[in-house]
Design goal:
The strands form 4 sheets. Strands 4-11-10-9-8-5-6-7 form an 8-stranded mixed beta sheet, with helices on both faces. A 4-stranded antiparallel beta sheet has the order 12-13-16-15, with helices on one face. A two-stranded antiparallel ribbon has the order 1-2. Strand 6 and strand 7 form a beta hairpin. Helix 1 crosses helix 3, helix 2 packs across helix 3 and helix 12 runs parallel beside helix 14. By secondary structure, the chain is of the alpha/beta class. Bound molecules: pyridoxal-5'-phosphate.
Length: 454
């Protein structure tokens, strides 16, 4: 245990040293640097570190225990007692209040994270990983993970990938940011509607965002022109409408890229979760020289891992690696190695299969409850669906307000358009969260909310 104390012992001698140590500990406890339950170093260790007699440290600990700052626990050493630092405790900001029924899209069920499998893989990795892995690495990421991903993406997503073309990133958002930076000052098309945050990421990287409308066949790739240098697409499951890119549109985008030398940035964020049909392969497989394929562990495992990957055409490898190196040198190694182990042991596939069944059941419950009264789109894949609102029906904000009064949170289509104005209305229902029981409780509440505004 490493303990930093603001303590000047040099000028003190004898009892002065003990008093200086007591003061330093007291201050650290009072201002919260040593919060309740923190275990202090043993008297022997602290004495050695501060070059004090062990008896001096023991006497200081005893004094602070007598004052109620410390507790001596038999067998577990000395810990900071619980009653101090009210100022610090009250200044701790509570997190935003979570609604009781959270059906906002974007997050998988955290309570279903495969903790056991992750732990097993972590143990194995830590027991076998060479010391070199704890040092600096290369911007492309660990070869163990890139090799595992190349095989996995080929078999599960139809992506043509060699480990040498893969760059491990801190989630999709970093992949998008690195790529967009290559198009600073140039036009990058993004689906309309799409995630506003991703539009901001592309703009901040210096590119000019142009809207590409999406309809019931997905993005209007037939409208792409030669002045656009790159297009960001969600072909497997358009975000947020949930439409799968029609084969004609897939061909159109591959053709546009070949003819104009444009780049397709393929965001395959939830391509693993396909329910009704055979998985739809990645567009990358059709035009590997023109597509930067991006995947993420955010839906299959959890966004907290911040693990994503790019499969790049050869000419982009150098520029993206240069950008990645200057962004953060490389993504942290241990998570990469654990994910690599999970893929190699097929634990990753097993988890996806189990999650697919769970989410499919949740989706069926949603359709079973609302499918007859409402038009629900995007249900063949992913973790969210779009409930279309009839024109002249209730406004999205009215539904949100009634939902909030019932402690229910959902998303709206409205927040995803490039420009405000007249647009079709809809609400987005995420079924990745909450936990199983809470989800079942949430559906009747959602039904009641919708019925009360119609
Ligand atoms: C459209 C879309 N793409 C990608 C992602 C994943 O992003 P990240 O890997 O940065 O978590 C999300 C997450 O919600 C998303 O909605």
């Amino acid at each position: 245990m490493d303990l930093h104390l603001d303590i000047e012992l040099g000028e003190h001698a004898g009892p002065g040293r003990r008093a200086a140590l007591e003061r330093a500990l007291r201050e650290a406890i009072q201002d919260g640097r040593l919060p309740p339950d923190t275990r202090l170093p043993s008297t022997r260790a602290l004495a050695a570190e501060l070059r004090l007699a062990r008896g001096t440290v023991s006497a200081a600990y005893d004094q602070l225990a007598a004052e109620g700052y410390l507790l001596a626990r038999t067998g577990s050493g000395t810990v900071v007692a619980g009653r101090q630092a009210p100022a610090v405790r009250s200044s701790r900001v509570p997190g935003p209040a979570r609604p009781r029924f959270d059906l906002r899209p974007g997050t998988p069920d955290g309570s279903a994270f495969p903790a056991e499998a992750w732990l097993r893989a972590t143990r194995k990795v830590l027991a076998t990983t060479p010391g070199e892995a704890y040092g600096y690495g290369e911007p492309e990421g660990r070869i163990e993970l890139r090799a595992g991903l190349a095989a996995y993406l080929g078999r599960a997503r139809g992506v043509l990938a060699d480990p040498g073309q893969i760059v491990v990133t801190s989630g999709y958002v970093q992949a998008l940011s690195l790529l967009a930076g290559l198009f600073a000052g140039q036009r990058v098309a993004m689906e309309d509607p799409c995630l506003g945050f991703h539009r901001d990421v592309v703009r901040r990287a210096g590119a000019e965002v142009v809207p590409l409308p999406a309809d019931e066949r997905g993005a209007r790739t037939d409208l792409l022109t030669g002045d656009v240098r790159a297009v960001v697409l969600t072909p497997a499951h358009q975000y947020p409408t949930g439409v799968t890119l029609h084969p004609e549109r897939r061909h159109a985008v591959a053709e546009w890229a070949r003819r104009h030398g444009g780049l397709v940035i393929e965001d395959d964020y939830d391509g693993e979760f396909r329910y009704d049909r055979q998985p739809v392969g990645a567009v990358q497989g059709m035009a590997p020289g023109h597509v930067a394929y991006a995947g993420t562990a955010s839906k299959t495992l959890g966004p907290a891992l911040r693990l994503g990957w790019l499969v790049l055409p050869g000419h982009l490898l150098g520029p993206v690696l240069d950008a990645k190196r200057h962004a953060d040198l490389h993504t942290e190694h241990i998570g990469q190695l654990v994910l690599a182990e999970l893929i190699a042991s097929h634990g990753y596939d097993r988890n996806i299969r189990a999650a697919r069944l769970r989410y499919r059941r949740r989706r069926d419950l949603l359709i079973g409850r609302l499918g007859e009264r409402y038009r629900i789109g995007g249900v063949s894949a992913g973790l969210h669906a779009l409930l279309h609102l009839p024109s002249g029906g209730p406004a999205e904000e009215d539904i949100l307000a009634v939902a909030a009064a019932h402690d229910l949170a959902i998303g709206t289509l409205g927040e995803h358009w490039h420009t405000p104005g007249e647009h079709p209305a809809g609400v987005i229902i995420g079924y990745g969260t909450p936990s199983e029981t809470r989800y079942r409780e949430a559906l009747p509440v959602l039904e009641k909310v919708l019925a009360s505004v119609h």
